[in-house]
Amino acid sequence: MTPTEAAPPPSLRLHDVALAAVEEICAEAAAGSSSPEDQFLRHAAASVRADGRSLNQALDACLRAPAPADERLVWLGGQLRLARVEILAVALAAAVEDNPLFGRVIAHVQAPLGGSRPTLGLPVSALDRVAPTSGHVLPTILNGPAVRSGLLAVLNDTAPLTERPVMVPSPLCLAMAGYDSVWPGTSIGNVDSPAIPLPDAVRAEARQHASALEGDSHRALALRSGSPAEGRSVAMSIAAALSRRPAFIETEKVAGFGPWLLMRGLLPVFCLELAPGERRKLPPLPGYNGPVLVVCGPDGSIEMPTASVANWTLPIPTQADRRALWLAALDGGRQGGTPKDSHAIELADQLSADHRHGTGRIAHLGRLARHQAALAGRSTIDRSDVLAAAWTGEGGGLDALAEPLRATVSDAALVASAPLRADLEALMLRCRAREDLADGLGASASTRYRPGVRALFTGPSGTGKTLAAGWIATRLGLPLYRVDLAAVTSKYIGETEKNLSQLLARAEQSEVILLFDEADSLFGKRTEINDANDRFANAQTNYLLQRLENYDGLVVLTSNSQARFDEAFAYAHETHADHTRKGNGVPYIGHLMGVASIVIDDGGSEDEAIAALLHDAPEDRGGRERLEDIRRRFGDGVAKIVEDCTDSWTMPKAPWKERKEKYAAHARTLGPASLRVSAADKVHNAYAILRDLRNVGDKVWERFNANADEIVAYYRSLVRSYREAGGGRLVDELDRIVRAIEREMGY
Predict the structure, then answer these.
(1) Which residue of 195, 578, 659, 694 lies most exposed, with the fewest beta carbons within 10 A?
(2) Bridge partner residues of 153 (DSSP)
(3) Contact by Cβ (8 Å): 59, 70
(4) Is 514 helix (H, G, I), strand (E, B) or coil?
(5) Domain-wise residue ranges, the chain
């Protein structure tokens, strides 16, 4: 069809008004022209001016009672507060993308520049006649919300301004026409896999979060889970409660997303993988002022320039919820239905009682177990199908970072003495009862209790430590993975911690046993700190130790050593068995392990490493009597360091400020060994403050008996005292951390 053959639209469109304005500036030059393009322009202008209407009157009519095809653009103009000239420019640019005839006309009008997309010079020349602005048209368009939001994209930034083409991105053209379209790196809804069933409690909390998000613009919520599928399903539940659809975004190139989200009624959901300590700023979405969701793992922090970001860590379902989820998984994912056969009900009862799988993991295992049953020619799923399916990690996160140890270890294969077998049986019972172990022990014990289990197997090589771990895994019906530190280690700064974070988060969701073979290497001296690379390498070990403090799963560590250090570790663990860190309730042994690791990384001796494990024992558990017990067991050298690290010998302790001032003065007199351990303790504590300050803000100070300024002043005084005592690399590191805390506080 030629331009002259094109029939006018049944109702007046915005792009017709824009074409009429273009025809007006071309009328004199095109007078008498019989070209198809000029005839098309004259035809469009005539239809707009029918019944004696002026262009302004025609535009008023289009905005007051838009044609069905223009309704979304007019509505969007109101949402973005577009100027009239911007609406016409968008209508003209979108018409070119939709109809090739418009492109031919625009190219004809702009000759000899060429190009079928309108340049900025065209609206400057033509549209001001029909939609006059309070200023010049060019800055109105360039600085207006159409360009800021990405609704109108300006191309070729090397050309003169008036010769730069403008376009409406194709997803926005389709959105204005009422159709879905996706940008690169996005998807609408859960197109890759079906949504997984969620526990009733999670769906109820999702509705509560939706209500909170709906009542406040620029509000963001981070959904933290080791299972990406679970996080996406919760995001879908929140979106449904908001009467929207989720748009999952895995790109930072978000120009034009604001208008797209508005027109298609979408809820933006950023899908991120964050490393420990990483701070990620979400890209702004100009034009969109609604709620934002983020699906991510347990580590890292998220910031938005115009919003506060709340966090929701998705919980491991209760046993009752797990039973309902298993019933749905065994019935093909149909939540609320009950499988017809009693075997499926019995299996759901067993699996929910024996395993603490996450929501996403249960759905994943259900799909794989049905496949296993089909391969065996069975229509029903049995426990062996679930156990076989358990070896497949969701998203490949486990297999990529840890080695599966698939061998089944029978009772006959484990040759052990009666006392050792009794210890292993007790450990197995501890693992089975870990969810309910604190029930009935009171509010204090329940609050501090963590269901994670960490076991240390010691003995010379070849005595069956790995075999014993395999036996426990077989008896519990859990996969066993040996962590390959070489596989998770990366030469890129921060990537090792990200790999470990993904491994541990997914292991928690999947309920597997992680085996850290030769764990004594974690405490051994890795490298001298000669440059920044050495410092970051040692920080990776420190992160692993800190992350194990609050790990929710099952971990077995093996060691060939049975020397004084192992005795000191057991002594510290027993001494601080019910002791937790302030503010987060994680086992205190993690702090002691972290300090010992820092001491060893700094080249500390065995005495110094042992003292690092025991440095808080007299202060928190027994005073001078505890110190003398340490002296009898581990010698005068260890006792001297522990004594130098202690600032209180009695309970209740003296007032905080009094104790800290005395210790800062005492720190000036420390010898090299005591200085190393004391500084390592303060490095670990200060880093924990910095990390939590970045994650939870000023709430971190609520756990102390002093205010923020007093605490920072204390650490600053310690840096000065340590330098008087001799200084060193750990003192420099403490100084850097304190400076970072001061920056976070705005000093």
Answers:
(1) 578
(2) 167
(3) no
(4) strand
(5) 3-176, 186-313, 319-390, 395-562, 566-573+583-747
Q: Is 619 a catalytic residue?
A: yes
Amino acid at 474: T
Longest dimension (CA), the chain: 112
Length of the chain: 747
Look up tokens 């600053």; give the residue.
Answer: 716
620 is catalytic: yes
Q: Residue 245 has what pLDDT?
A: 95
Q: SS3 of 563, please?
A: coil
Task: For residue 121, give both structure tokens.
Answer: 């010079």
Position 547, amino acid? R
Query: In Å, how far are 522, 588, 655 from 651, measured between CA atoms?
Result: 35, 19, 11
Q: Give the span between the Cα atoms of 250 and 247, in whole angstroms.
A: 10
- Tokens 């909390």, residue located: 205
**Distance between CA atoms of residues 396 and 125, nearest Å:** 58
Element housing 95 (H / E): helix 84-98
**Order of strands, sheet of 220-224, starting from the edge strand that comes earlier in the sequence:** 186-188, 245-249, 266-271, 292-296, 220-224, 309-313
Question: The domain 186-313 is classified under which CATH number: 1.10.10, 3.90.1200, 2.30.110, 3.40.50?
Answer: 3.40.50
- Contact 643/669 with Cβ under 8 angstroms? no
Q: For residue 77, give the amino acid letter.
A: G
CA distance 631 to 244: 66
CATH code of domain 395-562: 3.40.50.300
Q: Please name the helix (run of DSSP H) or strand (run of DSSP E) that holds residue 467, with its range, or none.
A: helix 465-476
Burial of residue 670 (number of CB atoms within 10 Å: 0-12, 13-18, 19+): buried
Out of 180, 200, 534, 620, pick the active-site residue.
Answer: 620
Give the tokens for residue 97: 């993308």
- Kindly name the residue from 16, 205, 619, 647 that is annotated as catalytic: 619
Q: What is the pLDDT of residue 150?
A: 95
Q: Residue 528 in 3-state DSSP?
A: coil
Rounded mean pLDDT for each run of 10 residues along the chain, 747 residues in total: 41 88 73 75 84 85 92 95 93 91 87 84 78 73 94 92 92 94 89 77 94 79 89 94 94 94 96 84 92 90 84 90 89 55 85 86 87 87 86 62 86 88 90 78 67 81 86 91 68 66 80 80 46 52 70 83 74 82 75 88 85 90 88 88 89 87 93 93 90 85 87 93 92 92 86
CA distance 77 to 146: 9
Q: Is 65 left (phi over 0), alpha (psi -120 to 50) or beta?
A: beta
Q: What is the secondary structure of 137-188 as a DSSP string?
A: HHHHHHTSHHHHTTSSEEP-TTS-GGG-BEE--HHHHHHHTT-----TTEEE
Nearest to 317 by CA among 203, 426, 411, 394: 203
**What is the DSSP track for 607-671?**
HHHHHHHHTTHHHHTTHHHHHHHHHHHH-HHHHHHHHHT----SSSPPPHHHHHHHHHHHHTT--
Question: 401, 506 in Cβ contact below 8 A?
Answer: no
Cα–Cα–Cα angle for 502, 503, 507, rounded to 5 degrees: 115
Identical fold for domains 319-390 and 566-573+583-747, yes or no, is no
3-state class (DSSP) for residue 294: strand
- The 10 Å Cβ neighbour count of residue 337 is 11
DSSP at 440:
T
Q: Are 394 and 227 in contact (CB under 8 A)?
A: yes
CA distance 97 to 58: 23
pLDDT at 257: 96
Domain 319-390 = CATH 1.10.8: yes
Query: Model-level pTM?
Result: 0.68
Architecture of the domain delimited by 566-573+583-747 = Orthogonal Bundle (1.10)
pLDDT value for 384: 87
